[in-house]
Design goal:
Elements lengths: L12 E5 L28 H13 L4 E5 L9 H9 L6 E6 L4 H11 L3 E5 L5 H8 L4 H13 L4 E7 L8 H10 L3 E6 L16 H9 L5 E2 L10 E4 L6 E5 L12 E4 L4 E3 L8 E2 L1 H6 L2 H13 L19 H4 L2
Parallel strand pairs: 1-2, 1-10, 2-3, 3-4, 4-5, 5-6, 6-9
Antiparallel strand pairs: 7-8, 8-9, 10-11, 11-12
Helix pairs in contact: 1-2, 1-9, 2-3, 3-5
The structure holds S-adenosylmethionine and iron/sulfur cluster (SF4).
S-adenosylmethionine binds next to strand 3, strand 5 and helix 10.
Length: 325
């Protein structure tokens, strides 16, 4: 039976975070002054995460994205993914990573049953990459992308576009999609941590598109389920495709099909909503029925839309790494 929310949206997609820890410190994700990690004891065990996934699938979820923090830093991830991939009724098991550890893990991820990877990459120049990530080594990410391609993963690269930081690289990223069969998605910067004067960083999707079309012919691409919230385009003759995601300038809440569960078991109906349900009590009661009810409650109370726009945002600042993006 499909899972339908209060305004008729079908909810079939769970973003499941397995850790709030990360081997990078991206400026848009974590504030400068420390990151306040969740205590180890509050992080769900793999068995608990598995229970959530299994119950979610039993009530109508058919796609799970594993996220973090950085999911590849959590020990024991591969056997957990193998188990998830075997859940009857789970159609898609996919994962989002910063790519730093991908070179050595790509083969195992593929063998475990992960079907597709989203790789976050915000710059193709070493200095800008390490500035944005506060510590990252671009060569490792590029090696990870190559390893993932070699073992047959379909790949999406996600670039968070920030004015004055990396927006001069929009065309360089587009060139990647011309040269190889990957999807490059440009994502508007979101004010998760609400830094002062955040609007200066947002390059609206309309401007990204205008900048691309000054140099490239873009044709609308057919919208498939795999496109998610992106508006997709193809470049004639290109091996890959481009997508633009506009959570700030043009929200896509009416088509939202997702819920989120953090690594500490907090379920959320919207990234920007303050409301959340702690799944731990129902999980630890051992009752699948209670867990199913708690997940269904998140779907029922899913906000109609978020209240963030270029003019203002009203949410409490949060670390994207604690929710999973
Ligand atoms: N560590 C993994 C990664 O970076 O891909 C997975 C977790 S990360 C929180 C998930 C996604 O959220 C990444 O693609 C990241 O770029 C995106 N993200 C984080 N903060 C963001 C922000 N302020 N605006 C837009 N996207 C953001
Ligand atoms: Fe880590 Fe991903 Fe956040 Fe960057 S965006 S700090 S890689 S969790």
């Amino acid at each position: 039976m499909p899972l339908i929310d209060s305004i008729g949206r079908t909810i079939n997609y769970l973003r499941l975070s397995v850790t709030d820890r990360c081997n990078l410190r991206c400026r848009y994700c974590m504030p400068e002054d420390g990151i306040g990690k969740v205590a180890h004891g509050d992080i769900l065990s793999y068995e608990e995460l598995f229970q959530i996934a299994r119950v979610a699938v039993s009530i109508g979820i058919d796609k799970i994205r594993i996220t973090g923090g950085e999911p590849l830093v959590r020990k024991g991830l591969i056997p957990f993914l193998q188990k998830l991939a075997e859940i009857p009724g789970l159609g898609q098991l996919v994962l989002t990573t910063n790519g730093v550890l991908l070179e050595k893990m790509a083969v195992d991820l593929r063998a475990a049953g992960v079907q597709r990877l989203n790789i976050s990459l915000d710059s193709l120049t070493p200095d800008t990459f390490s500035h944005i990530s506060r510590c990252g080594d671009l060569t490792r990410v590029l090696a990870g992308i190559e390893a993932a391609k070699e073992c047959g993963f379909p790949i999406k690269l996600n670039m968070v576009v920030m004015r004055g930081v990396n927006d001069h690289e929009i065309l360089d990223f587009a060139a990647l999609a011309t040269a190889s069969a990957i999807t490059v998605r440009f994502i508007e910067y979101m004010p998760a941590i609400r830094e002062h004067n955040w609007q200066r960083l947002v390059v609206p999707g309309s401007e990204i598109l205008a900048r691309l079309t000054q140099h490239l012919t873009l044709l609308p691409a057919e919208h498939t389920d795999l496109a998610g919230p992106a508006r997709n385009f193809r470049i004639p003759g290109a091996a890959g495709t481009l997508g633009i995601i506009t959570p700030v300038s043009h929200h896509f809440c009416s088509d939202c099909n997702r819920i989120r569960v953090t690594a500490s078991g907090l379920a959320k109906g919207c990234l920007f909503a303050g409301s959340q349900v702690d799944l731990k009590p129902s999980l630890r009661s051992g009752s699948r029925g209670l867990l199913a009810q708690a997940l269904a409650a998140i779907v029922e109370t899913k906000p109609v839309r978020h209240q963030m726009s270029l003019e203002a945002c009203h949410h409490q600042a949060f670390r994207m790494s604690s929710i999973g993006g």
